[in-house]
Amino acid sequence: MIEFRNVSKSYPSGTHALYNVSLKINRGEFVFIVGSSGAGKSTFLKLIMSEEKITEGEVTVDGIKLSRLKRRKVPYLRRKMGIVFQDFRLIEKMTVYDNVAFAMRCVGANNKAIKDRVPYILKLVGLGSKMRSKPSQLSGGEQQRVALARALVNNPEIIIADEPTGNVDPEMSHEIIDLLSEINKQGTTIIVVTHEHDLVKEFGRRVIEINKGRIVHDTKIESNSIEDISLISSYDQEIPDDELSPLLKRDIVQEQTAEEEFATRNLEEVRKAIEAQYSANEHKSADDSKAVNKPKSKVEKKVENIDRLVEEISSDDKEDLIHTVRLDSAQLKELLLKEEEKRKKDAAVDSVIDSLH
What we know:
There is one protein chain. The chain is of the alpha/beta class. About 50% of the residues lie in helices and about 15% in strands. It contains 13 helices and 10 strands. It has a 6-stranded mixed sheet, with helices on both faces. It is flat and about 75 Å long. The two termini are about 20 Å apart.
């Protein structure tokens, strides 16, 4: 369902948020993500939602490789997901009913579907009697349940809950996790980011801990229950090597081995490698020079024409348009303008959906 393969994420500021993360979350799993502030949890979620681009590696969600996902396709990826945030992000001027219905309108649901689905979902989360209330008239726990109803209403394959219990009391925290557990029984994949370790231990689900951008614990891989390990983020301090998770030890050993191999590499081999690379570069330069002087075919000229047209209207669909090289310039431009108009409509839908988050 969700797979990270050797994923690293760095920001332009120089911050290295994730380092060489590899994991797999199967369809229908319930997973807690824990870690101290700044550990990389938010970046982990943003990569799944395609809010951030991967620096290295690959993230796959429901068979979709996100490194290849075009911007205009992102809204369709997010329709597979329901997002629940700590600060609720409800629209204050709308009633509870309209807040939830708005999520359905964003994906083009008709009025009959909305009238049938929204009351059912609100009753499911225990808010059947609050449909006409405004968010300001609800308690923190009730507002969180509205946010959960909004995430559920489009029947997503994945629920991502970012600190869903952060603004509610302990009793309501249990109710929210209980509700997510019931949803999980229907086959929905659940990912919950939380700092409440007692809650995590009580529910006994799979736990992944991120610390300084690395996975340091994964109860599924370690074949341990959460009771058998000490979460680094539970006391947020450095721990001795003999207490490190096998996952973290493995990464450290691999790094040390690589450094030692590089440090002890025979200098003669390095010299030969440099000479070979230099020779290869010379041959490549000669080949490139020949290629520059070679007359271009009609097809190559038309592809260049496509490039110019694409730049003219800022389209990101060049790869999809290569098959049109047999069209003349006027036909190409008309096609590209239609694609641009469609992309703008998709972007408008994306903007509305983002406003919910």
